[in-house]
Write a structure and sequence with these properties.
448 residues; 25% strand; 4-stranded antiparallel beta sheet; 38% helix; alpha+beta; single chain
């Protein structure tokens, strides 16, 4: 009897594997029929980027495409802390009987970057930012790849309803680059107004991985990020008489160097952390000691306790150095941690990550699936997991011409990174792989 059950199990496993593998040629053929249209869509989006908080045309286009595929679409989802800002979040739902609820997400916004790729579809868009200054705009982070891949995935799944069951949610998220778009959608009751997902999945293009490949990182994959401002206040005066002043430039220089000891001497080397001073401004002339100097920092970590400890240390060190320099208590440095420009770390649920890695291996081949190390960049995808209570995965999508990757590695020269004015994904294989990988992931999570 035991042998009969064993044989039956083998037969069922074999049939399931056969079914999964049988899906791949059909999916490849479907992507083949749509790839030219997807590439055209990508180029249109690339040429017409919109800044965070201003994604009106992009979201309208995205919503219209999904509505035309049969999805139930809601626009302008989200509430920012600043009531003067409009949220252009999009939520599209397709219900296909009882089953799991899966949310897949794309970002909609672009960056204030002047494109220098020289591509025939390069962005020439200029607009006013929120400060009123004219800036160039570019999809320098590849969100146009994400949007197009999502539209391709949405179309595949709308045509493959006989192969999945449950509720599919497609999220068009605004303002990822300013890391307040996901929080805006959550603040507007995303999981109260719409079904709460059982799984959340996203992809992000990768500037060092070959097009045709995907990457995955179990556990922490991206860091938290805090924006910190330090106003170093001194007592200004003539550059020829420094003894009559309390020089904030010298104090600021000491603070910059001392901050590095937080990571090297106060934090375990097994807990990755970064403190970078990205901006320092002070003074107006060669022979004038100014009254103040302003520093801008980015602070990054994976674990929340490390993050909070670093932020506390920054305040302690800044004020301690000023005190040692003889700056009066009423002129102590002012340390401000932004309440809007921050985001939590991105954590990929290990079990779900390994499950999807196996799916990608079946769909794309083992040579095209790469385990990647975590990085210290940041984004706001993590908020959608409700502090790790919903299994979520943000996987990487190769976007670079394989020949350029090969040349870069041979010469030891870096490729244009994300946010670079020269970042130029290779459209056709990148989109093909993105659609196939995401569609395969959803079919796995919602299989009948």
């Amino acid at each position: 009897m035991r042998n009969k059950f064993y044989l039956l199990s083998l037969v069922c496993t074999s049939l399931l594997a056969t079914s999964i593998y049988a899906q791949q040629p059909a999916l490849d053929a479907m992507i083949d029929r749509n790839i030219a249209s997807l590439v055209a869509t990508y180029k249109t989006l690339h040429a017409a980027p919109e800044l965070s908080h201003h994604e009106e045309k992009t979201s309208t286009f995205f919503a219209a495409q999904l509505r035309g595929m049969g999805y139930d679409v809601t626009e302008r989802v989200g509430k920012y802390e600043n009531p003067a800002l409009s949220s252009y979040g999009v939520v599209a739902i397709m219900k296909n009987g009882p089953g799991p609820t899966v949310l897949i997400r794309t970002e909609l916004d672009a960056l204030p970057v002047n494109e220098k790729t020289g591509l025939p579809y390069a962005s020439t868009v200029k607009t006013k930012n929120e400060a009123g200054d004219e800036v160039s705009v570019m999809h320098a982070c590849g969100h146009d790849v994400h949007i197009t891949s999502m539209l391709g995935t949405a179309k595949m799944l709308s045509e493959l309803k006989d192969q999945w069951r449950g509720t599919l949610i497609i999220l068009g998220q605004p303002a990822e680059e300013t890391v307040d778009g996901a929080r805006a959608m959550m603040r507007d009751g995303l999981y109260q107004k719409f079904p709460k997902p059982d799984f959340v999945v996203a992809l992000h293009d990768h500037s060092e991985l070959e097009a045709g490949k995907v990457g995955y990182t179990p556990g922490y994959s991206l860091a938290s990020a805090d924006s910190v401002d330090i106003k170093v206040r001194g007592l200004g005066g003539h550059g020829a008489a420094p003894e009559t002043t309390k020089d904030p430039i010298v104090v600021a220089a000491e603070i910059v160097l001392a901050l590095q000891t937080i990571v090297s001497r106060e934090n375990s080397p097994l807990d990755p952390a970064v403190i970078t001073v990205g901006s320092i401004h002070g003074g107006s002339k060669h022979n004038i000691i100014p009254d103040e100097v302003n520093l801008q920092l980015t602070v990054r970590a994976y674990r929340e306790e490390v993050r909070h400890r670093m932020l506390a240390s920054i305040g302690r060190i800044a004020k301690g150095i000023a005190l040692a320099a003889g700056i009066p208590a009423d002129r102590a440095p002012i340390v401000t941690v932004s309440s809007t420009q921050f985001t939590a770390a991105t954590y990929n649920d290990p079990a779900l990550t390994e499950r999807l890695a196996a799916v990608f291996t079946r769909a794309l081949g083992a040579d095209n699936v790469v385990k990647l190390p975590p990085a210290m960049m940041s984004e706001d995808f993590g908020y959608l997991s409700l502090e790790k209570t919903i299994p979520s995965v943000d996987f990487s999508l190769g976007a670079v011409d394989p020949e350029k990757v090969k040349q870069s590695r041979a010469a030891g020269t870096p490729l244009p990174s994300l946010h670079s004015a020269l970042f130029a994904p290779l459209p056709e294989p990148t989109l093909r792989t993105g659609v196939k990988a995401m569609t395969s992931a959803v079919l796995e999570l919602m299989k009948k």
